[in-house]
Amino acid sequence: MSHRETRPVGRDRQFFGHPRGLAVLFGTEMWERFSFYGLQGILLTFLVADTAQNGLGLPDTVAVPIASLYSGLVYLTALPGGWLADRILGPRRAVLIGGIIIMAGHLSMAIPIKNPAMVFFGLFLVVAGSGLLKPNISVMVGKLYDDDTDARRDAGFSVFYMGINLGAFLGILITPYLAGDDRWHLGFGAAAVGMAFGLLWYVRGWPRLTHAGIGPARPLSEVEKQQTRKILVISLAIAAVAIAIWAWTGTLTLATVPTVVTGLSIAAAVWYFVYIFGEAKGITPAEKAGLRAYVGLFIASVVFWMLYLQMGSVLTAFASNSVDLDSWGFHLPAGGVQNFNSIFILVFSPIFGVVWLKLGTRFGTAYKFAIGVFLVGFSYVFLGWLQTRADDGALVALGWMAWVYLLLTFGELCVSPVGLSVTTQLAPPNLKGQMMGVWFLGPAVGTPLGGQAFAFLVPRVGEAAFFYILAGIAILTSVVLAVFSPALHRLMGRGGHGPDATLEAPPEPEFGRGSTGGDGRG
């Protein structure tokens, strides 16, 4: 009889039939998502609110790139966050430290002072802490099932993602109402309280995590520690000098920071791809073919996230400026409109899972991506039409936004879980961790790109044309992807994955409201 069969059932099956540690991670992630999406629900409206309403009074073309950057950098910092856990901290300590940093960031933003420096310092802390917490708490969920079946592990992740979506829904529901039109710091404080609840739950349940996440998987050797310290010191010195020169030239502004950081994110993505292909030594020709196919899917994912992950920025600005938020007999804060996505994800995730299983090998991964990118593009066509109506002086009824978010959600369910699955299946055995990092680069690059497109295009062509241009990019990408899908599937087939690498799609990730995706949800 195996060790797994002799474990006491009472200890191992106390949370929806799963290990007790899952309840700890479920609650921690739920409250962390409450804080993250609660902040996202009010960030844009705070940035654009005038100073008489205790906001910063920034124009949309400055505020939207900042809000987009906040959403995108969380996925970029997941890469160093994962490395720190693997080599130095271990996932368990990384989650704890990350949660403390996140709470400190929200507290910094909650201090009711006029100087915006504390707000941006708080955003920096939230992004840095999320990079430590987000990837590593998912790793710990998997560690709870090291000696268990794949089916039970998948079921455990399904329960875990329920916590992600529940926390996101509650954060977007509660925080904008607390913030109101001028009580922003109360909203920031609510996010801090949410993260504090998550930390208390995590520390209290620490013993229930048993062996999960204790210590780094591959601790640094003494030589590697010395090399890491040297690289860190040199990098910090170069960054300090660069920022000092940037400030001295007088070009260090709220408008230029998102542009520069977006450029650095693109450079990081290019470097990471070069690194991945450089590390692909000793892999088979079939595996190399699979990696080449993955490049096409990754480009499509960047376009997808460029449109999809503007919910907390572009779409919130649209809701604030052009939507009748009282049209259903009650006032819905502009940030609260994002909860259409939360509701639709909870309703339609299991339906799409069944659909993909029924279709099986008859409908390949690239075709699913093409449909997802097309749907998100079509939602922007819809937004362009609605913006045209708003430009004529008519506020858009709230119900129209439900249709926009329905299209976005359907697109997400075609790309996000499918992308996670094909990433794990196309990755060579020795590159699976790095390839998951590549998948996170999609939203890390695409999200700030969407914000930069808004800042560049809107002053020149207007908001309606902005929506139509991004829609055209997405629809054209979907058509090109559909045309080349047979070739991509042949390359994937050479890797032994057949025409469809996602026959058993994983539970809906947090992108969107929660892995990258995302959340995605991520």
UniProtKB/TrEMBL annotation:
InterPro entries named among the record's database cross-references:
Dipep/tripep_permease (IPR005279), MFS_dom (IPR020846), MFS_trans_sf (IPR036259), MFS_Transporters (IPR050171), POT_fam (IPR000109), PTR2_symporter_CS (IPR018456)
The region called Disordered is annotated at 498-522
Q: Where are the transmembrane segments?
A: 34-56, 62-82, 94-111, 117-134, 155-178, 184-203, 231-249, 255-277, 289-308, 340-357, 369-388, 394-415, 436-458, 464-484
Q: Which family does it belong to?
A: Belongs to the major facilitator superfamily. Proton-dependent oligopeptide transporter (POT/PTR) (TC 2.A.17) family.
Q: Which Pfam families match?
A: PTR2 (PF00854)
UniProt keywords, alphabetically: Cell membrane, Membrane, Transmembrane, Transmembrane helix, Transport
Topology within the bilayer: Multi-pass membrane protein
Major facilitator superfamily (MFS) profile domain location is 24-489
Gene3D superfamilies (alphabetical): MFS general substrate transporter like domains
What species is given as this protein's source? Glycomyces niveus
By its UniProt entry, which SUPFAM superfamilies does this protein fall under?
MFS general substrate transporter
| Keyword Transmembrane helix assigned | yes
Full protein name:
MFS transporter
Q: Which PANTHER family match?
A: PROTON-DEPENDENT OLIGOPEPTIDE FAMILY TRANSPORT PROTEIN, RESISTANCE PROTEIN MDTM, PUTATIVE-RELATED-RELATED
